[in-house]
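Continuing from the previous page...

OK, I double-checked the sequence for Aldose 1-epimerase family protein against my notes and this is the correct one:
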Amino acid sequence: MEQIKNELLTVEISEHGAELQSIKDSEGHEYLWDGDANYWGRKSPLLFPIVCGLWKNTFRINGKEFRMNRHGFARDTDFTVLAKGENRIILGLHDTAETYKVYPFHFNLAVSYKLNGNRIHVVWHVENTDSKDIFFQIGGHPAFAVPGCRKGEPMKAKLKLDEAEPMRVFGNVEGCLKPGYHKVETNGGMWEVDEETFKDDAIIFDHQQLKHVELLDENDEPVVSVDFKSPAVGIWNPAGKHAPFICIEPWYGIHDWAEFEGEFKDKYLMNKLQPGASFMSEYTITIGK
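Thanks. Re-ran it with the corrected sequence; updated structure tokens here:
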């Protein structure tokens, strides 16, 4: 387990999956979900090289079929610490013979965590080390403890969105999406959610409708804020489990459309890198105001 800290925050990161494990303030208050496997055994997995699900867990490259489980393999793979300071750490992963069997591209993937006051900057860097174009999706999946909620009790939370009437993508068809949109009604961006909200899985907003989401306390003050520039974001809780957390997930990628059987490169919200090129993006987690 690796740790970075400053005068306001102490953050722990596991080399397994380069996954956040803890976010505590100077008083020892924990903001991240604890990963209790009775509800959901992860805390903040990194999604790569796909985000969400493939139709029939299958994708095609030049007509050849490959299989990959939901959210890809990075979250279940050990990373290497590339650099570390008191308030910053960089972890890396590159292709291996095993990854090439399921994802036939050569790549370097790095994720860095940097503290700046009460903010955690999460930066993704993907480099094409192949001799051909590579295609990938990438996303975050941080789970935050909902103020006032306990395990085993119905989850209720209040969020504040930077868009008053965003349009969600329809789902869920065997873990994938169907074309179409539905307006999410809020009170000027204030959005109260419960477990029923997520009965059809995550609520997904694409077309970069949202760039800022806050998790509020009982006084409508922000406990955690997430800022991002990704084309999509998912909001999720495991419906029916009485799990006291909310995931706010910036995504450069999304589920397959139901019955999609096209090429991997033609998936919705796919990212492409030419040989030698690289991709970099950042999202930030702010604790408190």
